[in-house]
Structures are given as structure tokens and as C-alpha cells.
Amino acid sequence: PAPEDDKPARAWIDQRGGKFVSFINGKFVTPGDKPTWFPAENPATGEKLGQVYQSTQKDVDAAVKAARAAQENWAALPGFERAKYLYAITRLMQKHARLFAVLETLDNGKPIRESRDIDVPAATAHFHHHAGWAQIMDDEFDGYEPYGVAGQIIPWNFPLLMLAWKVAPALATGNTVVLKPAEQTNLTAQLFAEICVEAGLPKGVFNLVTGDGKVGAMIVAHDGIDKLAFTGSTDIGRLIRKESAGSGKALTLELGGKSPYIVFDDADIDSAVEGLVDAIWFNQGEVCCAGSRLLVQESIYDSFVEKLKRRMQNLRVGNPMDKCVDLGAVVDKTQLDRITKLVDKAVKDGAEIYQIKDACPTKGCFYPPTILTNVEPSDEIAQIEVFGPVLSVISFRNQQDAVAIANNTRFGLAATVWTENINMALEMAPAIKAGVVWINSSNRFYAGCGFGGYRESGYGREGGKEGLYAYLKPSYLSTLSEASPR
Ligand code: NAD
Fold this sequence. Notes:
Blueprint: H1 7-15, E1 19-20, E2 23-24, E3 27-28, E4 37-41, E5 48-53, H2 57-76, H3 79-95, H4 97-108, H5 112-140, E6 144-146, E7 149-153, H6 159-172, E8 176-180, H7 187-198, E9 206-208, H8 213-221, E10 227-231, H9 234-244, E11 250-254, E12 260-263, H10 269-281, E13 293-297, H11 301-313, H12 333-348, E14 352-355, E15 370-373, H13 380-383, E16 390-396, H14 399-406, E17 414-418, H15 422-431, E18 436-439, E19 458-459, H16 464-469, E20 472-474, H17 476-483
Parallel strand pairs: 1-5, 7-8, 7-10, 8-9, 10-11, 12-13, 12-17, 13-16, 15-16, 17-18
Antiparallel strand pairs: 2-3, 4-5, 6-20, 11-19, 14-15
Nicotinamide-adenine-dinucleotide binds at residues 153-157, 180, 182-183, 212-213, 216-217, 220, 231-233, 236, 239-240, 254-257, 288, 385, 387, 413, 453, 458.
């Protein structure tokens, strides 16, 4: 099969001189004296795609200032006027869908099939959905007002989709934005900024600052930010919570997970195997809600694991630009080393490892799909988020046992239950402490449905009506006191 044509994406990169910079007040910035740059790399090949500008405190100040200056007018627009801009962004994302997909794959290493069929359409749908909310905002959210300026920090695993989850609800509700993409993945956010210009979005409504965690910390500390929204690791989430405590900034956190994938002996086994392939090997397992713990009922343990191993043999790992590839590269060498270390340690601790022989290309940041058996629920590998294509398998006896093991984690982002017994499934769902419980399916996302965590997976929801409340505060008290006679 022919690899996806990457010429238009390469031409787009060349047009910009391979330079990816902050976008402030409607313009890409020209870095000042002695700027610091770091490379943007294709993890599948090690090829340098270009260089990313490390923003300074001055840039962050300018971005916040621009967002502040634009906010009042943006919020004063009737919702249906803001909706026009969101619809325009949606249409332009559709128009440039192929370019977005190829850039995402070059930058992140994920299979083109996934960026083309999942990341980009889901991100576009998110804007479309929120355009709809903006249209009815004034009626639906009477008595609420935007926080003001939202500082948003996102990870590298779904660069464009996470941008959409953050930016669409913020703009729909009348907030303006200062967004920082992850240092590993900047390309699609740059294209998104261009689209904002093309859509005629008023300058200062969407601002982008490029750079590493130090730039993120500047956003967190900035006095001109009213609302912080973070998606990333639990450790950084905890730090941000501490740093922003007492600052008066509103905060939502979307953090890590260690989601259980529970298979009962009465399940439709073939479908459960297919669902699991998606749950743990989609996006190389670099998914916050990845079904990384398989809990399988004792009576079918051997047969299920056998079937899964056979199915795993058919997965293709390789050049993510190849349209037939199932797993591409992990995001960078750091992530590859982290996965390798965690798996090696698990094996040392007694886990049995199963991988496809010679699955990966010899060059690039590839890790093969991996199954670990002989794992106890309390083992490190069953507790820590690997964020890679690594599945730990644990057996359980009965329903109570399954619930206890499922909840035996610091996290609570997602869970899956496979059974033909719908009564049992409906008992399981509320018993599992997770933001979403999928029944006989996995990785189902819909812009109209709130997504978020319990416990150390964070708090706040993205998507649905709940997701809008994350960007709104009640204003009815002041309205009431103005209106009420003394
Ligand atoms: P990370 O926490 O290292 O980085 C996330 C972002 O935070 C990056 O933009 C980074 O530059 C920035 N950052 C780093 N240090 C910072 C600091 N001190 N202050 C402010 N910002 C800082 O996470 P990652 O490795 O990029 O992403 C992987 C993690 O994201 C995983 O743990 C995964 O579970 C989580 N994730 C969660 C969801 C969700 O919806 N719950 C979705 C995707 C990813």
C-alpha cells in the first residue's frame, strides 16, 4: 500500500521556514534577540521537521495582555455571533483536514489512519458542537458569565483534539484563550492559528505560546489569567494545583489513568478481543483512558489470553504514514525509554512477557504491542500509568472481586465491562469509580458527553453541558442584588 502523500505538508512546513513560533494578538511573533529554539522531530524517523521557539516571560505577558484586551468585546457579542466564528473554524478545519492529519502524524508518530479518521474529525466535530452551544448560550446559560482569560496547557498524545477540547468551549462561552501545546507536538496548533486568521476571529481571542513546561509555569503563575485548564500527567497536575492555590484562578484538571477492561465469562469473546485491541493499542497506548489493565474472569482466563495473543500477531507496527499500519511510533525517545524501563522492571519482578517477534522497524521510536501476565493487582506495572502499548493481565473470581480490583488504583478515568448480562453490567457501572464506564465497547467519545476523572485522574469535565460549566461562573447573585428593591 502506498504511503500517504506528505508533499503538501512538507510544502507547508517549508513555507514557514521550518519555524514554529507563538501566535499573539492575531500574528505569529518574530522572536527577539538571541531566541532559544528546540527541534521538532518526527519520532518515526528521527528526522528534524523544524524548530520551535521557546517563548519568554515577555511573550506570555503579551499573550495575556492581548487576551485581556479582547475579552470584553468577545463576551459582549451575542452567542449567535460567536457561533459564526466557530462555524467558520469548523469549515476551515474540514477544508484542511488532510493537511492537519499528515502534520499530526509527522509530528506525533500516530498512524495516518487514526489522525485522518479519528483525531481530525473528532476535533472538527468538537468545534461544530460548541458552535451550536454558542448559538443558544444566551438563553441556556442565563445567569452565567465567562471567567475571562483561560490559560490552557495540553499534552502531546492528541495535539489537535486536546486543543479542540480546550479552545472550543472556552470561545463558545465568551472566554479568550492563551494556549500552550506540548513541547513535542506543535505543528497542528500552528495550522489552527492560521485558520483563526482565515476565519476572521478577532485578534487576541486565541493566542498560542510555544515552549516547554517553564512556559506552562508562567501561564499558571500569571495574574492576568482567570481560569486554568490542564491536561497532562498527574504529577504536573498536582503541582499546578499547589501553585495556583489561593490565587483565585478557577482550575480543571484532566490527568492520567489506569483503566480496567473487565471481561466476564459470558461475554461475546471475539468482540471483547477486538474491543481490547482498540482499548490498549489505539494510539500506541498513549491514551489517558487506555484499557491498560485486563481483568478477565478465571474460568476463561487461558482461552481469552490465547485468543488475544493470536490477534496481537496480526497487528502491524511501522511507518505511520502507511495507511495500513496499526501502531506507529511513540512520541519521543524519552517516552520510549520510560516504557522500556517499566516493562523490564515488571519482568524482573516476575511478570511473563509476550510480544510479537521483530515487530518494529529498527530505527525510530517504536515499541511493540506487549502483554504481561502473572501480574498481581498491586504490582507496580498494574498501578503506574505506562502510557504505551502495554497490557497487564489480572484474573478475577466473581463480580465483587472484579469491582474491588477495578477500584484498586489511584486513578478513576474510564472503565469497560464486557458481559451479555445487562443487569450485571448496570450494577457494575456505578460501582466502579471512574468518570466513564463503557459497556460492551470502548473508547467511545462524543462531543455532547462530558469526559473527566475521579480521584487522581482529576476533576472537571470536557464535552457536553458539564464541559461548558467549566468555563462559566454564576453571575445571578450580582444581577439579583442590582434588581432587588432595597
Ligand atoms: P506532562 O504533564 O508532562 O505535560 C503536559 C503539559 O504540561 C505540556 O504542555 C508541558 O509542557 C506542560 N508542563 C510541564 N511542566 C509544567 C509546569 N511545571 N507547569 C505548567 N505546565 C507544565 O504530560 P505529557 O507527558 O505531555 O502527557 C501525558 C499525560 O497526559 C499522561 O499522564 C496522560 O494520562 C495525560 N492525559 C490526560 C488526558 C485526560 O483527558 N485525562 C488526556 C490526554 C493525556
